[in-house]
Amino acid sequence: MADRTTRAAQEGDGIRTFPFPVDLSLSGVGMQVGPMGTGRVWHADAPLERVHRIDFHVVMLFHAGPVRHMIDFAEYEALAGDILWIRPGQVHRFSGTDRYGGTVLTMQPGFLPRATVEATGLYRYDLPPLLRPDTDQLTALEHSLTQLEREYVDTATLPLSLHTSVLRHSLTAFLLRLAHLAASSAEAARQPTDTTFTRFRDAVEKGFASNHSVSAYADALGYSRRTLVRAVRAATGETPKGFIDKRVILEAKRLLAHTEMPIGRVGAAVGFPDSANFSKYFHQHTGTTPVAFRAELR
After folding, report:
1. What is the C-alpha separation between 213 and 105, in angstroms, rounded?
2. N or C: which end of the chain has fewer CB within 10 A?
3. How far is CA 204 from CA 149, 213, 247, 251, in A?
């Protein structure tokens, strides 16, 4: 386990990323579900009270609260009946003082077929992590999750291949309910699935580390700048430049929090070859310097 974690930490951008612990799941399937609480971990070396990144999905349904949990440098307060959905690659941190009680589901990317992934919006990073189902929605989600947990722990009545297939179907049923909740939430309602915006969002995700130009994105996508401004403002309430800046700052924060990369290299990784320009840009958008931000987390 430790060797695998070390390799993960040394790859890519150097951020300490923890893989899905297949060896901790029953029968080695690509998911886990069960009670969360004191002493439960999903990785032997994960520093739960420090910021870290995971490469799998986590869904936590709380039976008690409040619990404060940080996801991508935003603090969320979950109450009894609330759900937190953390997606692969997101930075998060557990509270060191709050008690976590409820049910937690973890799932390895690739466990579900692509059609199901698309239908359930598993990689809709634009949707809010904190979900608050109403009474009927919560009851249905709890029943679905309970059924999934029963299937998960029943490793004796079916061959492994059939057991895995049943888990995929049960997991899909739960995630479809969860995806409907996410899509119909108040925050998600402000982000319609407009083709112009989604194409822009996907292009920014691929190119933000080197391209900060709204005009360049508009030209590459075949839209006028005015069309892009209207689409992004309607979907997010902000300008295309503001959307790009937010993504750049998020990645810079991740690198500053998770790596020992010099400030200059962090700046270069998000499109600023000049360290002074990066520091000025970071301060302009956060109110603090890269050095001070990193120091606060250490």
Report:
1. 39
2. C
3. 38, 10, 8, 12
The whole-angstrom separation of Cα 234 and Cα 132 is 24
Distance separating alpha carbons of residues 182 and 88, to the nearest angstrom: 17
Between the alpha carbon of residue 62 and those of residues 36, 80, 151, the distances in Å are 9, 5, 21
pLDDT tens, residue by residue, 141-167: 999 999 999 999 999 999 999 999 999
Length of the chain: 298
Decide: 229 and 221 in contact? Cβ < 8 Å: no
> pTM higher than 0.85, yes or no?
no
On whether the CB atoms of residues 51 and 86 are closer than 8 A, the answer is no
Query: What's the Cα-to-Cα distance from 64 to each of 46, 98, 290, rounded to whole Å?
Result: 23, 10, 36
27 DSSP assignment:
G
State the Cα–Cα distance between residues 145 and 85, nearest whole angstrom: 14
Pairing label, strands 31-36, 83-86:
unpaired
Q: What does the block give as tokens for 77? A: 């307060």
Question: In sequence order, what E strands does the chain have?
Answer: 17-18, 31-36, 52-54, 57-62, 67-71, 74-78, 83-86, 91-93, 102-107, 130-131
- Give ∠ CA 193-168-52 in degrees, rounded to 5: 70
Of 146, 141, 64, nearest in space to 102 by CA: 64
How many angstroms from the chain centroid is the CA of residue 106? 12
Region of 98 please: left (phi>0), alpha (psi -120 to 50) or beta. beta
Query: What single letter denotes the amino acid at residue 26?
Result: L
Instruction: Quote the pLDDT of residue 89.
Output: 83
Give residue-wise pLDDT tens across range 62-92: 998 899 998 888 889 999 999 999 988 888 8
Cα–Cα distance between 258 and 261 in angstroms, integer? 9
